[in-house]
Every structure is written in C-alpha cells, then in structure tokens.
Amino acid sequence: MKQVPVAVRWALAGLITVVALAVAVWPRGGGETAPGPQVQQSAQVSDALRAAAGLAACPRPAPGASATGPLAGRTLDCLADGEPVDLAAALAGKPALLNLWAYWCGPCRQELPDLQQYAQRAGDAITVLTVHSDPQAATALSLLTDLHVTLPGVLDPEAGVRAAVGAPAVLPVSVLVRADGSIAEVVVRRFTSVDDIADTVAAKLGVRP
Fold this sequence. Notes:
- This protein is of the alpha+beta class.
- It is built from seven helices and nine strands.
- The strands form two sheets. The chain has a seven-stranded mixed sheet with strand order 3-2-6-5-4-8-9.
- Helix 4 crosses helix 7.
- It is globular.
- About 10% of the residues have low confidence.
- This is Thiol-disulfide isomerase/thioredoxin.
- Keywords: Cytochrome c-type biogenesis, Disulfide bond, Isomerase, Redox-active center, Signal-anchor, Transmembrane.
- It is found in: Cell envelope.
- InterPro entries: Redoxin, Thioredoxin-like_sf, Thioredoxin_CS, Thioredoxin_domain, Thioredoxin_ResA/DsbE_sf.
- GO terms for molecular function: isomerase activity.
C-alpha cells in the first residue's frame, strides 16, 4: 500500500483542526452569541444621526412612580436623545416588552420590523422598548434607520439588563415585564411574526391588542 506523503498528512491534520474549532464556536439555536468585550465604545453620536433615525421618545417616569423589580436602579441612555432613563421607574405602572438586540445580530434584524408592527397594533396597552446590548450606538441608529424601525430604545453597552434578568448571552431576547416591575417571562428566541408576539404577550402578560 502506497504511503501518504508527510506534507499531505500535515495538511489534512491542519484542516481537521480548523473544522473542529469552527464547529466548537458556531452559535447554537435561533439566537446569536454575544461577541467578546470591546475595547472602545462608539464615538459621540451626532444630532444629525439621531434626527435621521427619528426614534420615538423614551418613556419617562410618571409622578410618584415606584421603581421595583430586578431593573430597579438601572439607568440607561435613550437612543433618541442621549438622555438618561431610569428604566424601572419609566416602565412602572404598565406592562412592558423589552427587546434585547444588537446591530451584529441577524435574527434581531428580522424581528425588529415585527416588533414595530406589534407596537403600532398594541397602542398604549403595553410599552415596547428596544435595548441595544452593545456600545456601538451610532451603528445601532444607522441600522434602525435602514429598517425604518422607530421604536423607543435605550443603549445598554455592558448588557446589564440581560444580566439583571438572568438571560443567557445570546440575542435576541425579549423580557416581558409586569406593571409592578416583576418579570413574567424571558423569551430566549426570535419571534416569528406579529401574531407570535401578540400570542406570547397575551399568554404571559394578559395584554391582547
């Protein structure tokens, strides 16, 4: 039997190693795993970029609103204007859907337009707020502009919301919050349609638009 040349054997061994590493790091399931820590945050976001995105204003705390639940004490910057938002206080008194996403997440791009349509259908019955779980605010605003998604959103550069609710390091994740600030459900998957969002919210929060 003819012996395989040494150079060929080494090439085959290297190829097997590369394939094994690729399989090991490939994301599982319907979401995408978060990239490693980024050294630098994005540059200052221009007023022109915020204006082009045309995002809705972030919710603000009602007078006397009580901040309770796992999101209490967490303040994030609003993507629409850069102003800080006391998250738990701003959401108090009404059910909410927080959608955790990032510009590099493919399933998030598919889901965001459905969330926009759901929010329009639901009206004032529920607060729908996007949470960009990455420091790159300018890139997030550019993508939202391209998608024609104008939902209110906040910037969560250190993914603190995800940690607070105990969600895994994948995206997208949707957090269903009761009016009292407690968490009804952490949905670790991409919603497949507007009806899927409506059915899930109705089952977990009792809100049916």
